[in-house]
Design brief:
Blueprint (H helix, E strand, L loop, with lengths): L2 H14 L12 H13 L8 E3 L6 E11 L6 E11 L3 E3 L1 H9 L8 H16 L3 E10 H4 L9 E8 H4 L1 H10 L4
Antiparallel strand pairs: 1-4, 2-3, 3-5, 5-6
Helix pairs in contact: 1-2
Length: about 180
Amino acid sequence: MNREKIERGVRLLLEGLELDLSDRNLVGTPRRVARMYAEFFSPKKNNFATFPETHSNMIILRGHEIVGVCPHHLLPVRMRVYIAYIPNKRVLGLSKLARCIEGHLTRPVLQETLTDDIAQDLQLRLDPKGVGCVVVGMHGCMRDRGVHTSGDVVTSSMTGVFFTNSPTRDEFLRLIGRI
């Protein structure tokens, strides 16, 4: 990540808004914004530690809160992620579910893409019987401009038994409070 380019870009943006860059409240803004984006988009480490286990029922992480950035307006998207899988001989360390989610926030990303990427990542890494992922997002670009709605956007991605078996999918949605 090139922080100097980000700082130059923020300076240009502030100049384009005809703001006084010598204003004491704006002097450090380009540096702070560059640091913020570096924090938002820094890759999160995850070793995806798994353990042999005969557990064959659903494992769910409910309502993990994250903040992403919309690629269309570069505004924040506050999201709650609900993810579940049914193990197939191995279970993932519990904290690794949250780390998997956060590992997909290394760039501005559409909520729809994020939802699919999380589900597919777990499916490929764990080879579980199935994965269910629901993301509920409050979009800054919809809340603070345009339609000015306080509504949230819900996306889902299902693989394996979550896709093919309605009772499994319904159990997941009921346990996360979505039905």
